Amino acid sequence: MTQSQTNDGAGAGAVTTVEAVPPQPQPQPQSQQQSNEMVLHTGSLSFSSHMSREDEEMTRSALSAFRAKEDEIEKRRMEVRERIQAQLGRVEQETKRLSTIREELESMADPMRKEVSVVRKKIDSVNKELKPLGSTVQKKEREYKEALDSFNEKNREKVQLITKLMELVGESEKLRMIKLEELSKSIETV
User: Fold this and answer.
1) Which residue spans within 68-182 are E strands per DSSP?
2) Continuous segment of H or E residues that includes residue 67
3) How many angstroms separate the CA atoms of 59 and 53, rounded?
4) 144: which of 5, 73, 126, 181 lies 20 to 30 Å off by Cα?
5) Distance (Å, rounded) from C-alpha 113 to C-alpha 49?
6) Nearest-angstrom CA–CA distance, 166 and 172
7) Are 52 and 166 in contact (CB under 8 A)?
8) Are 48 and 169 in contact (CB under 8 A)?
9) In angstroms, rounded to a whole number, what is the distance separating the alpha carbons of residues 157 and 22?
10) At what angle do helices 113-189 and 30-107 cross, to 10 degrees?
11) Burial of 51 by CB count in 10 Å (0-12 exposed, 13-18 middle, 19+ buried)?
12) A GO molecular function for this record (predicted)?
């Protein structure tokens, strides 16, 4: 019995099992015939389980990579959100503090008018910078959700294709085993 592996354009390997035919037809003892059938049957089972394990391993590694990427994206998103919230908190505190200072300054004779004006301009500038950051966070969250949905869809498609492949491989093995049994019977009758 010989096995050969071929690769098609899609990269999936197919194993072909061929039983060597003796040069002269000789009747085989019953135990040797059962042994040959057992080897053929065992060979197809090991191929099927080997492919199944490879597919499970591939699916497991794809899911693991997906989870790792998803965790990394979520972690980064939360870090950005926390930094923005911290910055917003600091800005609000600074705004309150500066407002209090401004009120105190206005109640006095205003020798610090220029400095107050500069600080107000800085506050306005910081507020202007915060608005686009907030919209950027929302945009990135939308992009993340769209990318995640797209990834999930492709992953579902891959699982369906793997299932179809396993069905085709199983059907092919059944047909080849039937043909080999027919050939074996025809050799016995000769």
Assistant:
1) none
2) helix 30-107
3) 10
4) 126
5) 82
6) 10
7) yes
8) yes
9) 46
10) 170
11) buried
12) sequence-specific DNA binding
SS3 190: coil
What is the length of the chain? 190
Per-residue pLDDT of the chain in tens (190 residues, 90 and over written 9)? 444 444 444 444 444 444 444 444 444 445 444 444 444 444 444 444 555 788 888 888 888 998 999 999 999 999 999 999 999 999 999 999 988 888 877 776 656 778 888 999 999 999 999 889 989 999 999 999 999 999 999 999 999 999 999 999 999 999 999 998 988 888 887 6
Strands of the chain (E only): list them.
2-7, 13-18
Asked if 44 and 173 touch (Cβ cutoff 8 Å), the reply is yes
* Phi (first) and psi of residue 48, to 5 degrees: -60, -45
Which has the closest alpha carbon to 129: 86, 87, 76, 97?
87
